[in-house]
Structure formats: structure tokens, C-alpha cells
Amino acid sequence: MVSRFRIPHSRLVLLAIAAVAAGWGMAAGQARAAATTAFLPHQALYDLSLVKSRGSASIDSARGRILYNFSGSPCEGYTSEFRQVSELSSGEGSVTLSDLRSTSWEDADGKSYRFKVDSRMNDTDSSSVDGIAERDGDHITVKLKQPEAKTFTLDGSTVFPTEQIRRIIAAAREGKSLLELTVFDGSDNGEKVYYTMSVIGQPIPGDRTTPSPDPSTTNDQMKSLTRWPVTVTYYDRDAKATDGEQTPIYAMSFELFENGVSRALVLDYNDFVVSGALGKFDVKDAKPCK
User: Fold this and answer.
1) CA-based nearest residue to 19, from 235, 181, 174, 193
2) Which of 16, 236, 237, 241 makes a 20 to 30 Å CA pair with 215?
3) What is the pLDDT of residues 236-290, one digit of tens each?
4) Burial classification of residue 224, based on how many CB atoms lie within 10 Å of its CB (0-12 exposed, 13-18 middle, 19 or more buried)
5) How many CB atoms lie within 10 A of CB 154?
């Protein structure tokens, strides 16, 4: 249970979604249609805390931080740097400390994706994932360097993290409330593929008063922007359903701005729920395309 106190390094908010396209031809068309999304280069710091534990879980406290850096442009692609440090305490007095770091780059057309992930639990040696995924026609070829050299293919309808965000924003603007997507982000052992389902709520206009303001809602570049409440549920694509239903790995709720920034993060790991409050937010300089 403790090892689940992290999120796949798909864009923090991340977070996957949109209908599975019937073949890459349709997916590519949708990607081009949504390519007008202007992502904001930024750095965000989220403070994690325990909301509640459920059932047999004996979680006394959970705390930590997520530091997220996002940069890039349509001409140079998008780079995401992510670090999550978490501490989880159980009723027996045991404490588990985890440290997850990841760096990824995604081509603006969603054709190429490079990823590197390092994770450590307590005093154990770190485990690493390093690889690249390339889209070619109706399939994606993934080449791993770590944890072991391996090559495999994925269906071409699978999308990468930045494309996830592009799709969910496009769907929200179209007034859609339910979207599905198959997502690959290189997390876990570098071979995991997620089936995701998300629910998009009604838009929140920028001029609406926020009960719990934070640096994103008071920032001059942000406070006039529309955002949407979103809940995304992640499933292991290859896991078998029990009694006709598949148990999700976890669910994530957040408010997503139209420029890709997220706030009011809530992570539901089934046994316990953790919130992520946006404590610091900085806009970064963007390099214009030549």
C-alpha cells in the first residue's frame, strides 16, 4: 500500500483522458485540431497532507511535497520535471519515506516521447526506468534502456502525457463531460499502460470568487482564465476485472486551467486520500517559435 503513495509521472495534472481513437489516423487529426492549446511554462509546488484513511488501512499521517516544472513550446517540444517526496506513517509506528524523480520530453505532435524515472523507498537502492517511445503509423515502438534493455510495441491510439492534457482541455471547451483514453507515460517498470476515464465538470469562470484562493488564482496571468473541475480514474489496462468490475489503481481530482496549470489536487489511493495544496506558483519565460 505504501508504495502507491505516488502518481505516475504523466503530467501532474495531469491527467489523462479523452476518447480512444480508432486508429492513429483519427488520433492524429484530433491532435492537430487541439494543437492551438497554449501551455504556460511554469513551476508549481504542492504540499501533500492526509485527508482520510479507509477500511483496514492504519494510516496515521501522510505528508510530502510535489515540485513540478513544465517548459517548452510547439516548436521545440515540451519538457516536464517532476519530484515527489512523501512520508507515510502507520498505526504501528512505522514510517515509509519515498522519493520519486522523473524527467520527460514530448514532441509537440505527440510522435516522440523520452522518459527517465528514478525512485527510492526508505534506504533501499534507487530503481530506474529509462527509455524512448516513437510513433510510427498505426503503432508505437518503445525502447527501454532500464530496468533492462527491451523493445515492445503499443497500439497507435495510445497517447503520451502532454497530449493527454491537450485532449482534456479541448474536450472541456467542447462541453464534453466524459472522456476515455489509453495512456503511456513510462512509469512503474516502463511497460505499464493505463486505461483512464475522466469526468469534466462545469466551467469555473476566472471572475468567480474562490473559497480557498492560492497563488494560481491570484496571479495576474491566471485570474481571468477559465478552469474546469476534473476527476480522472486510472486503471491497469492489462488487469483482469473481478465480478465484472475492475478496481482502479487510484483516482485524481483537480481544477484544470485552460493553459494546462492545475490546482486543488486530491489523490485517492482507495485505502487513503491525500490532498495537494498549491503552495507556490511561478510563471516562467517562454521562448517564442522562430
Assistant:
1) 181
2) 16
3) 888 765 556 788 898 999 999 999 899 999 999 888 899 999 999 999 887 777 7
4) exposed
5) 17
Work out the average pLDDT over 57-61: 78
Do the Cβ atoms of 228 and 255 come closer than 8 Å?
Answer: yes
Residue reference for cell 499521517:
61
Query: Which string of b and e fits 156-176 if b means at least 16 CB within 10 Å?
Result: bbbbbbbbbbbbbbbbbeeee
- Residue 72: strand, helix, or coil: strand
**What CA–CA distance (Å, rounded) separates 12 from 49?**
17
Q: Under DSSP, is residue 241 helix (H, G, I), strand (E, B) or coil?
A: coil
Map residue 32 onto helix, strand or coil.
Answer: helix
Write out the three cell numbers for 73. Answer: 513550446
Length of the chain in residues, anyone? Answer: 290
First to last CA, the chain: 48
Q: By the 8 A CB rule, do 263 and 217 touch? A: yes
> Parallel, antiparallel, or unpaired for β 77-90 and 150-155?
unpaired
Residues 6+ apart with CB under 8 A from 94: none
